[in-house]
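Exam revision sheet. Question 4 asks you to relate a sequence to its structure. Input first:
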Amino acid sequence: MEPHRRTTRRTVIARALPALVLAVAATGCADAAATSTDGEGDRTAELLVQVTSVHEETGMTLLEGPTFAPDGGLLVVDVTAPAGEPKVLRVDTGSAEVEPVFTHGDGAYTSAQFSPLDDRLYLTDFAGGRIDSITPEGEDHTTFFSGDVDGTPMQPDDLAFDEAGNMYVSDSTGFGDPAWEPRGRVVRIDGETAEATVLADELPAPNGISFREDFGGLWVGQYAANRVDHYELDEDGTSVVTSHAAIHFDGGTSRIDSIAVDAEGNLYQAVHGQPSIFVYSSTGEHLATVSVPSEAAEGLESATNVAIAPGTTDAYMTVSGEDGGFVYSFEALGEGIRQSNGG
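Answer key, structure tokens:
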């Protein structure tokens, strides 16, 4: 790989992302290994492959949105990839080979997930305020949703599909504002008509979003509040019946990112500011912390997301920092389902 340029801390990166993306628009691999256990509740992930290096044009790289394609390949997005460079990449978790899938356009894609309606890959464009879709092979690029929601633009961060193919999106508007100025939302987008409805508003920059294992409710991570809320939905998923603060994350200067849920209902909470995944039970018990090896941690600043291969406990987390963008592997506590496969 080429030498890496030093970059700023992840918190500064997050605040600068919209301006960085506008500027972009204008212009050797290790084998997968089983997780080692350091002690009760602690796990060390193993390096699978380095996927990207820091881009000269943007001064950083940031992997996100891991999701398994129908052919078993692991797809990831590089949020800050400049125009003309791969924005979606495929990782072969067996051979650790990496190949580009999609390079078109100026999108700053922060999440990815396959729809149960059409088996296309849907991508949230954080800076462009839209949701695009492509085939698993990276073809037929279209925009599924764009424009204002109730008169206000979105900054779509993560997404989750219900069983019928409707989309639930975290609108992270206000992510760079003080926590006492909440402007974020959770938005439902109809899978057939693309009609958008606000389910919750005045939120502190929601980021991670995932259905429970039974699809009866949503877990929503509040980036600016370092907490995970639980939303109970009505039968058709069109409104929130009740909600409460469910898990509080004591992250110091780090903040919560994406959320995945396994077949046992456990939450995998990714983090900006440290290369670790925190695993909680559905009742809020801290079950495990998954971290990269200590010798690698200095050059890695965030573990943004995790995917668990469907029907297995083979888990993969996207990790980034001044050393580049990487995929690490570990053994999950429960098997992978739709809620742990993208978003």
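Marking note for examiners. The longest strand covers residues 240-248.
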